[in-house]
Amino acid sequence: MTAAAGALLEVDDLHTHFQLKNKLVRAVNGVSFVVQRGEILGIAGESGAGKSVACLSVLRLVPSPGRIVRGRILLSGQDLLAKSEKQMRELRGQTVSMVFEDPLNSLDPAFTVGDLIGETLILHKSLGKREARHKAADLLRLVGIPDPARRLDNYPHELSGGMQQRVMIAIALSCDPALLIADNPTTALDVTIQIQILALVKQLREQLGMGVLWVTHDLGVVAKLCDRVVIMYAGEVMEQGDVYGVLKRPRHPYTHRLIDALPKLGRPEQRLVPIEGRPPDPAYLPTGCSFAPRCYKAKPECRERAVPLHATANGGAVRCLFPED
Amino acid sequence: MSVVNLPLKDGGDVRAHADAAAEQRMFRRPSEWRIFWESFSRDRLAVGAVVLIALVCAASVLAPVVSPYDPTVGDNSLRLAPIGTPGHVLGLDGQGRDILSRLVWGGRVSLAIALLPVAVASVISVFLGLVAGFFGGKVDMLIMRILDVFFAFPAVLLAVAIAGVLGPGMLNVMLSITIVLIPYISRVAYMATVTVKNELFVDQARVSGARPYQILFHHILPNTLSPVIVYGSTLVGIMIVLGAGLSFLGLGITPPRPDWGIMCADGRNFLSVAPHVSAVPGVMLILVAMSFNIVGDGLRDALDPKLRK
C-alpha cells in the first residue's frame, strides 16, 4: 500500500516479535496502515490479533521481551524508530498520547484529578502549578465534565467510570497532541456512556484536528466513530478500507464472519453465527493465510504460501485469494 | 493550537468567563494534612493511642523537669513500698528508688531504642525496596538475596547476637535493632514497589513521556510509602518490647540507668512480695506497644484514599 503525501502516521511493514525462552511469538507480523490528519482510523479484530502491540510499537513502549524487528513508523514524516529514547519521551504525551482500556487503574490513586492532568502539563509545557491547574480545569470543561473547578480536587475513585475515562482523555489532550491512540477505551463503560465518549471524541477531532487511532473489538463502535478501518487477525491486516465499504460489503471472509457474529437490532429471527475454532497461536503461525484453518472458502492454495494484500477498487485492500465481490 | 483559547460551546474564552467566585473556589481545596486528619480523627481509639504516646513522649523528653526524684538514688528505708505510698505514687523498687521517676527516665531509653531504629531502617529499606523492585533483574537478585540471608536468622536471636558482639550500650542496641529490621521493612517496600510498578497508571505515566526517575519518585514512591509507614508504626510497638528484652538480658544500657526492660528484670526477684515493681513498667510496655499498633491501623485506614469515609 502507498502512503499519501503528508500523512500523519505511517506504519509500514511493522514486525513486533516477543522472543520467549523456547519460542518466538510474532504478535505483529507485517502490519501497514496510515492515519491522515484529522482522521479516525479504527483497528478492529479479536483479542490477541496484535492490535495493542501495534499501538505500543508506535510509542516504542513494547513491554520486554518484545522488540520491533522490522518496519518503519513515520510520524509527520519523521522516522520514530530512529529517534533516541529521550526524543521519544518528549514525543509521548505531547505529540502522541494514549488512552487505555481501564480508566480507574490508569489513574494513580494517590493524586487528585487536577494533579494528574497538571503533571503532563508541567512535564511537557513547563507550566507553573497554578497555570497547570487553570488549564486542567479548562481541559475538564472541554471533555464535558460539569463543575470542573470542584472535580479537580476529586480522587479518581470518587468519579464514575465515564468521568474517569473523560479525565483520561483530558490528560491525553492536555498538550494538544497531533495523534491520539485509544486502546479499547470504551470497553469498560456501559453503552450509554460509550455513545457519549464516542460523540466527544468525534467533536474533539473536529475542534482540534487531530488524528485518532482507535483500537477496538467492537464493530459497532467502528461503524459509529471511524472514517476508515483496519481489520487485523493474527498480527496481520486482513482487510482495510473506508468504514462504510468494509462493513457493508466485506471482502474478506474473516470480516464477513465477524459481522455475521454480531447481533443486529430488528432481526431477532436471525441466528448469530460464531466463527468456528480459535485464532492461531502467534508462536506457531500456519504457512499461507493465517485464517485458512477457520475459513469456509479455504482451498489448498490458501495454505501454500503467504497471501499478499490486494488493493480493491474502492481504495481499500484485502488479504485473500478468493475475496467476496 | 492551544486548548485554552478554543471557542467553546458557551462561547468565548473560558478563563475570561471564570468569575471571581469560581476563581476563589478553585484554590481553596483542603490541604492533604487536613483531609488526612479528618479521616484519622474519626478513629477514636487511634486518637486516644496518639494522645497516650504523646503524653509518654512528652514525659520522657521533659524527664529532668517532671521526674520527682533522682532515678538512680534509692531510699533504703522505703524499699519495695507499694503503689500509693505518700510521695511515691507508683511505689518504690528493690533498691528504694522511685518507680515513677525511673519510668519517666526509662521511657527516654525505651522509646529511643524503638523509634530511631524503625525510622532509620525504614528510610534504608524504602530505598533498597524501591531500587530492587523497580529495576529488577540482577539488582533485584543481589539486594533481595542478601536480605534473605538476614531473614534466615530469627529476629530476636540476630539482635542478641549483634548486640552481644558489639557489646552492651544504647547505641549498639539501636544498631542491632536497625539491622534486624531492614530485611522485614525492605520486603514490604519491595512488594509494594513490584505491585505498583505493574499498575496501569505507571504505563500511563510512561505513555505521557515521564522519565524513569519521575515514575519512581512521583508515582511509585508515594504508593509504596503508606504500607511502610503503617508497618513501621506497628513495628515500633514490637521493637519497644524487643529493646526491653535486650535490656532484660543485660545487653542494653548499663545500670543504674533505667529503662523499662531493666525495670521489669529488677522486679523479678520480688514478684511474690512486691509485684508492682515489675508490673508497672510491664503495663507501661504493653500500653505503649499496643498504642503504636492501634495508631498503625488508624494510619492504614487514613492513608488510603479508597478507605477514607
- What is the average of the pLDDT values of chain A? 88
How much of the sequence lies in strands of chain A comes to 15-25%
Alpha-beta classification of chain A: alpha/beta
Can you tell me the overall shape of chain A?
A: globular
Which CATH first-tier class of the domain at 9-95 and 175-252 in chain A would you pick?
A: Alpha Beta
The biggest sheet of chain B, with number of strands, parallel, antiparallel or mixed sense and barrel status, is:
none
Q: How would you describe the shape of chain B? A: elongated
Strand order of the largest sheet of chain A: 6-7-8-3-9-10-12-11
Describe the structure.
The complex is a heterodimer of chains A (325) and B (309). Chain A is of the alpha/beta class. Chain A has helices at residues 51-58, 85-91, 103-106, 113-125, 129-142, 148-151, 161-173, 191-208, 219-225, 243-248, 253-260, and strands spanning 9-19, 24-35, 40-44, 66-75, 78-79, 96-99, 179-183, 211-216, 228-233, 236-242, 310-311, 317-318. Chain A is globular, with a radius of gyration of 20 Å. With 309 residues, chain B is mainly α. Chain B has helices at 14-17, 20-26, 32-40, 44-61, 63-66, 99-135, 137-151, 155-166, 170-197, 200-207, 212-248, 260-267, 276-303. The longest helix of chain B has 37 residues, at 99-135. The two termini of chain B are 42 Å apart. Residues 1-21 and 23-27 of chain B have low confidence and may be disordered. The A-B interface holds A 59, 61, 89-94, 97-98, 100, 102, 105-112, 119-120, 123-124, 130, 133-135, 137-139, 141-142, 149-150, 152-153, 155, 157, 168, 171, 173-174, 176, 207-209 and B 1-4, 6, 8, 14-15, 18, 22, 25-27, 29-30, 199-201, 203-211, 214, 218-219, 222-223, 305-306.
